[in-house]
UniProtKB/TrEMBL annotation:
The keyword Zinc-finger belongs to this UniProt entry's keyword annotation: no
Subcellular localization: Cell membrane
InterPro entries in the record: MFS, MFS_dom, MFS_trans_sf
Organism: Micrococcoides hystricis
Protein name (record): MFS transporter
Keywords: Membrane, Transmembrane, Transmembrane helix
Listed Gene3D superfamilies: MFS general substrate transporter like domains
Transmembrane portions of the chain: 21-41, 53-74, 86-106, 112-131, 177-203, 248-272, 284-305, 311-328, 335-354, 374-395, 402-423
Signal sequence segment: none
PANTHER family for the chain: MAJOR FACILITATOR SUPERFAMILY (MFS) PROFILE DOMAIN-CONTAINING PROTEIN, PTHR23542
PROSITE patterns named among the record's database cross-references: MFS (PS50850)
Membrane topology, as annotated: Multi-pass membrane protein
Span of domain Major facilitator superfamily (MFS) profile: 247-435
Length: 435
C-alpha cells in the first residue's frame, strides 16, 4: 500500500474512520445540529408567542451572547478536567434551559417574553461545544496516531479539519431548514422539542465517546512532561503559559470577521430576495453558497503540505475579500449576477475557515487544545451576532447594499488579520519554541 502522504483525497477521508470509528463521524455531525436549531428555533418560538420580532431578536442575541461567553469557559474546564465531565453538565443544563423556554411559552403568558429570553441566554451559555471540542480531539488524535511523523500529522489534521468545517456548513444549512419545516407544518415549540432530543441523544453520546478519555490522557501526559521540563529549567523547550495565547490573537480576530461576514451576508441576501419579489427565499441562495463552501473546505485536505497554513489563510482571505467587495457593488444587479457571485464567493469561504482553525492548532500547546478551539469558535458566534445586528440596521437604511457592504468590510478585516499573522514572528509551534 502507498505511504500515507501518497493517499488520494478519498483515501484520506476514509482514513478518518480508522483513526476513530465509523459511527463517530456520523455522531459528530448529528451532535452539532442543536446549535443552529436552538438559534433559529428560539427566534421562531419567541416571535410566534409574543407576536414581536423584536423580542425574538433579543432572545436570539441572548442565546448567541451566552454561547460566546460559555464556550471558552467550557473549553478551559475541559482542558483541566476532561471533556466528558464538563460536556455532560452542559447537556443537563441545556435540557433544563430548553424545557424552561417551553414552560414559559405556554404557562406564563404575562411574563413569557422575559422568561424565554432568560432561558435562551442559559441555553446559549450551556450549548454543548461539539464543534470546537471535536476539533481539539482531532488535534490530539493526529499526533497520537503519527508519533514522530509531523508530515503525516499535518495531513491527518488537514483532512479532519476540512471534514469538521464541512459538517459546520451542513449543520448551519440543515438545522434551520429542519426547524422551518417542523415549525411550518406543526408548531414552533416542536422544533425546540426536537432540539432537546438531539441534545439528549447525540450530544450526550458525543460527550461520552471513548475518544474523550483518550484526549484527556494525552493532555495529562503533555502536562506532566511540561512540568518536568520546567522543573529541569529547560525553558527553551517548555511552553510559557502566559505567552502561547498571544499567537492566536490574529486568528481569533479573523474569526470575528468571518462571523460578521456570515451574519451580514445572510441578512443582505434576505433583503435582496425580498426586493426581487422572491419573498423569504434568501435562505436558499445563502445555502447554495454554503454548499459550495463545504465542498471547497473538503479540498483543503489535498493541498500541498509545503503550502503553509499562514500562506493558505492569507490567499483564501484575499480571494474572499475581493469577491465580497465585487458583490457589494453589484447589490442591485439582476438575480443571475448575484447568484453567480454568491456561488463564486463560496469557493474561498470554506478554505478560509479551515486554514484559520489549522493556524490555531499550530500555535496551541497540547494542554490548551479545548480552550483555543472554543475561544476561536466564540469569535465566529460573536461575529455572527454583530453581522446580524449591524447588518440589519444597514439593510433597513440602504437595502441589500448596506448588508453586503458590511460583509465586504468584514472580509477586509479577515485579510488584515491574516496578513498580521503571516508577518508575525512565530515563537511557539505545537508547544515547542521555534528559532
Amino acid at each position: 500500500m502507498s505511504s500515507e502522504t501518497e493517499l488520494n483525497i478519498f483515501q484520506r477521508f476514509a482514513r478518518l474512520h480508522t483513526l476513530t470509528s465509523g459511527w463517530y463521524l456520523w455522531l459528530s455531525g448529528l451532535a452539532r445540529l442543536p446549535i443552529s436549531m436552538i438559534n433559529i428555533g428560539t427566534l421562531t418560538l419567541v416571535s410566534s408567542v409574543t407576536g414581536s420580532f423584536i423580542f425574538g431578536g433579543i432572545a436570539t442575541a441572548a442565546a448567541g451572547l451566552g454561547n460566546a461567553i460559555g464556550g471558552p469557559i467550557v473549553g478551559s474546564i475541559a482542558d483541566r478536567t476532561g471533556q466528558r465531565r464538563v460536556m455532560n453538565v452542559t447537556v443537563i443544563l441545556n435540557l433544563v434551559a430548553l424545557l424552561g423556554m417551553l414552560l414559559a411559552a405556554f404557562n406564563y403568558p404575562e411574563y413569557s417574553a422575559w422568561w424565554m429570553i432568560a432561558a435562551a441566554g442559559l441555553a446559549g451559555l450551556s450549548t454543548p461545544q461539539v464543534a470546537p471540542l471535536g476539533r481539539a480531539r482531532w488535534m490530539a488524535v493526529a499526533e497520537l496516531q503519527n508519533p514522530g511523523k509531523p508530515v503525516h500529522q499535518r495531513r491527518d489534521l488537514d483532512t479532519a479539519l476540512s471534514f469538521e468545517s464541512t459538517l459546520d456548513e451542513l449543520g448551519f444549512a440543515l438545522g434551520p431548514a429542519f426547524v422551518g419545516l417542523v415549525a411550518g407544518i406543526f408548531n414552533p415549540a416542536l422544533a425546540i422539542v426536537f432540539a432537546a432530543l438531539f441534545v439528549l441523544f447525540f450530544a450526550s453520546a458525543f460527550a461520552n465517546h471513548p475518544i474523550a478519555g483518550v484526549v484527556h490522557k494525552y493532555q495529562q501526559s503533555a502536562l506532566a512532561e511540561q512540568r518536568k521540563k520546567l522543573q529541569e529549567k529547560r525553558a527553551d523547550e517548555a511552553v510559557t503559559p502566559d505567552r502561547w495565547w498571544t499567537q492566536i490573537i490574529f486568528p481569533v480576530a479573523g474569526m470575528v470577521g468571518q462571523g460578521t461576514f456570515f451574519g451580514a451576508t445572510g441578512v443582505a441576501v434576505l433583503a435582496y430576495t425580498k426586493t426581487q419579489g422572491l419573498g423569504d427565499s434568501g435562505g436558499l441562495l445563502y445555502g447554495a453558497m454554503g454548499l459550495v463552501s463545504g465542498f471547497t473546505a473538503l479540498s483543503v485536505a489535498s493541498w500541498p503540505v509545503n503550502f503553509t497554513n499562514r500562506a493558505r489563510w492569507l490567499v483564501s482571505a484575499v480571494a474572499l475579500s475581493i469577491l465580497t467587495w465585487i458583490l457589494s457593488f453589484q447589490a442591485i444587479s439582476p438575480l443571475w449576477v448575484v447568484v453567480l457571485l454568491l456561488l463564486l464567493l463560496g469557493l474561498p469561504v470554506g478554505p478560509t475557515m479551515v486554514t484559520t482553525f489549522s493556524t490555531v492548532s499550530e500555535y496551541t500547546p497540547p494542554t490548551r487544545l479545548a480552550t483555543a478551539m472554543t475561544v476561536t469558535q466564540a469569535g465566529i458566534v460573536l461575529g455572527i451576532s454583530v453581522g446580524n445586528a449591524v447588518g440589519g440596521l444597514l439593510v433597513q437604511a440602504d437595502g441589500a447594499r448596506g448588508g453586503f457592504l458590511l460583509a465586504a468590510i468584514a472580509g477586509t478585516l479577515i485579510v488584515v488579520a491574516a496578513t498580521a499573522n503571516f508577518l508575525q514572528k512565530r515563537i511557539y509551534h505545537h508547544g515547542q519554541i521555534r528559532r
